[in-house]
Design a protein that fits this description.
With about 150 residues, this protein is an all-alpha fold. It contains six helices and no strands. Helix 2 packs antiparallel against helix 6 (about 125-150).
Length: about 150
Amino acid sequence: MRKFLKGFAYAAAGIIHGFTERNFRVHVCAAAFVTWFALRFYELSRGEWAVLIMTFAVVISAELFNTSIERLCDKVSPEQDEKIRRSKDTAAGAVLISATASVIVGVTLFWDTERFAAVGEYFTMQPVRFLWLGLAVIAAAFFVFLPEKLKK
């Protein structure tokens, strides 16, 4: 049982390590904003929530696989190598495909011009809400980009 539970600890450590990657943080922030948007402005069915959550999971998992492959490739071959470059590019391509598919899922679930008007009204009725959204976006930008600046 102890070995089984250690597996969860190792997996959690891997997820936490994902936060060292800028693109991982971008995807996590995007998932958070989309979740807030869906909860506040939409009444998604259970099936739609399942699709949305699976979409988040696929993109974030792809980003973790990409990070894993990049780290392994850098360890195996620190020097320039064409096969290593192709391997890393292929992993990045998998992330791009999943992220692009997630945008298509988002458009499919959320495209509703009447709802867009309601969103606009939500922010114009009380402009302080727009300020809070702006602050949330700024906070997300710091979360995404500040760690990169601190590394240098």
